[in-house]
């Protein structure tokens, strides 16, 4: 009877681990799908910043000297390069832990209320963290490449002092689109960092893993859709539209 109970407990924890992992994937993939869909008709950071990028490229086309714009883009690229290099360091640390599974098992076992770990489960959890940071590295490096594409497009952009050339306005929008895609890749890389924190909670207990995944989704939603920054960016977008309509009433 005791042996049967012990097996049932192990089965219940295995089921809980599977449920926690599926909940984690549902939170990540579901929020990504939800945020993309909601951004099409709701003011949020992604939607409003895209409009700011269009205004930025419009203004850039009318400048003969674009040193300031180049400095702004270089600053954005430095931020991404920092996270890309940091991700490699984190990956190195996670891969090193594969050779220290037994020691990691003892450390987690000494933590109060933590689930008693098994070596195979620890390797699986480390594998999940490795996958997350590899994905983050791909996103950051792709973002850097797209900013490089944008620099080439800016270098090729002709001067339009009037701001009324419809063809060059279309070119400015394409530059804003490339910058927007680079920003999306950067955002996906940062989102991987957020969910990696939730994944680390799996080392302690599956229920904590589930709660952390839900908390990450709640935090991302509030910051991207309901934060004061979103409201300020939205209001700023309205002011820019009014100003541009006053300067170019026929456009």
Structure write-up:
This protein has one domain (43-247). The chain has helices at residues 2-39, 45-61, 67-97, 101-109, 119-156, 166-200, 206-226, 228-247. The chain has eight helices and no strands. By secondary structure, it is mainly α. Helix 2 packs antiparallel against helix 6 and helix 6 packs antiparallel against helix 7. 83% of the residues lie in helices and 0% in strands. The termini are far apart. Residues 1-12 have low confidence and may be disordered.
What does the main sheet amount to? none
Mean pLDDT equals: 88
Helices and strands: which structural class?
mainly alpha
User: How many β-strand stretches?
Assistant: 0
Write the layout of secondary structure elements.
Elements: H1 2-39, H2 45-61, H3 67-97, H4 101-109, H5 119-156, H6 166-200, H7 206-226, H8 228-247
Helix pairs in contact: 1-7, 2-6, 2-8, 3-5, 5-6, 6-7, 7-8
């Amino acid at each position: 009877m005791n042996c049967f109970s012990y097996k049932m407990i192990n089965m219940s924890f295995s089921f809980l681990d599977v449920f926690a992992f599926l909940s984690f994937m549902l939170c990540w993939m579901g929020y990504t799908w939800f945020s993309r869909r909601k951004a099409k008709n709701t003011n949020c950071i992604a939607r409003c910043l895209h409009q700011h990028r269009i205004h930025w490229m419009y203004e850039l086309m009318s400048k003969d000297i674009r040193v300031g714009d180049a400095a702004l883009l270089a600053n954005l690229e430095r931020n991404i390069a920092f996270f890309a290099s940091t991700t490699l360091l984190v990956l190195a640390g996670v891969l090193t832990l594969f050779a220290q599974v037994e020691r990691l098992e003892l450390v987690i076992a000494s933590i109060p209320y933590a689930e008693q770990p098994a070596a195979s489960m620890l390797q699986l959890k480390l594998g999940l963290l490795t996958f997350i940071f590899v994905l983050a590295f791909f996103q950051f490096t792709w973002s850097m490449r797209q900013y490089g594409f944008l620099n080439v497009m800016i270098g090729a952009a002709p001067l339009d002092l009037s701001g009324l050339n419809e063809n060059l306005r279309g070119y400015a929008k394409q530059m804003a689109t490339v910058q927007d895609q680079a920003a999306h890749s950067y955002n996906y890389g940062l989102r991987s960092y957020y969910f990696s924190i939730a994944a680390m909670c799996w080392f302690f207990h599956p229920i904590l893993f589930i709660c952390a995944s839900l908390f990450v989704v709640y935090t991302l939603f509030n910051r991207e859709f309901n934060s004061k920054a979103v409201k300020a960016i939205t209001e700023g977008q309205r002011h820019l539209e009014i100003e541009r309509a006053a300067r170019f009433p026929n456009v």
